[in-house]
């Protein structure tokens, strides 16, 4: 599909949570159009009737919170708001935002999106695409883990990864 001539920042780190993680920046040869992003990254719950394995992985690993009015004690909450800006808005198509980051397609259940029931603090909550952390179906199926994948088309992402990688030995695991 797309050839990848450069990969930077493939470094295993231990952040504040002391959990190993990596920030990886990948350059593509060809510019990717918004409609092509959906073939690489998804922010939707898969249809269990067509891909039960991916549905199980996403509903286990890639759901944020829930937080806000559904769970005000969630660790992402500060001053009554989610610091990660969840729940996201529903949108029928992926569009590129002015800051270089896309607004991912997140269809509502009435428009082809999926939902499922999740029990949080002894309460059944209907989870829909507004709560999905963007992921790569390929990486999710390969590693069965939480892997947040974002499409970035700005210089800010390059600056961020370089700054993060070099921010000090106290944060890096060698």
Could you characterize what this model shows?
By secondary structure, the protein is an alpha+beta fold. The chain is 18% helix and 21% strand. The protein contains four helices and eight strands. The protein has helices at residues 34-37, 52-61, 137-143, 155-165; strands at residues 6-14, 20-27, 77-78, 81-82, 95-96, 102-103, 115-120, 123-128. The strands form four sheets. Strands 1-2 form a two-stranded antiparallel sheet. Strands 3-4 form a two-stranded antiparallel ribbon. A hairpin with a 5-residue loop joins strand 1 (6-14) and strand 2. The protein is globular and about 45 Å long. It starts with 5 loop residues before the first strand and ends in a 9-residue tail after the last helix. Mean pLDDT is 83; it is low at 8-13.
**Strand fraction:** 15-25%
> How widely separated are the two ends?
33 Å
Q: How are the strands of the largest sheet arranged?
A: 1-2
> What is the makeup of the main sheet?
2 strands, antiparallel
Total of helices: 4
Integer-rounded radius of gyration: 17 Å
Q: How much helix is in the residues?
A: 10-25%
Q: Could you report the average pLDDT, rounded to the nearest whole number?
A: 83
What is the molecular shape? globular
Counting helices, strands and paired strands, the structural category is alpha+beta
Low-pLDDT stretches: 8-13
Order of helices and strands: EEHHEEEEEEHH
Number of strands: 8
Organism: Argiope bruennichi
Protein name: Helitron helicase-like domain-containing protein
């Amino acid at each position: 599909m797309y050839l990848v001539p450069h990969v930077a920042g493939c470094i295993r780190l231990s952040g504040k949570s002391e959990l190993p993680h990596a920030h990886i920046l990948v350059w593509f040869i060809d510019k990717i159009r918004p409609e092509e992003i959906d073939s690489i990254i998804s922010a939707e719950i898969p249809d269990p009737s067509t891909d039960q394995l991916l549905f199980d992985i996403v509903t286990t690993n890639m759901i944020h919170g829930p937080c806000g009015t559904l769970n005000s004690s969630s660790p992402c909450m500060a001053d009554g708001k989610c610091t990660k800006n969840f729940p996201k808005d529903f949108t029928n198509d992926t569009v590129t935002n002015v800051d270089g980051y896309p607004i991912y397609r997140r269809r509502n259940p009435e428009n082809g999106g999926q939902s499922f029931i999740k029990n949080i603090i002894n309460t059944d909550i209907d989870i829909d695409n507004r709560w999905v952390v963007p992921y790569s179906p390929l990486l999710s199926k390969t590693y069965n883990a939480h892997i947040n994948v974002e499409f970035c088309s700005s210089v800010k992402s390059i600056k961020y990864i370089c700054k993060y990688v070099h921010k000090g030995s106290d944060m890096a695991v060698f």
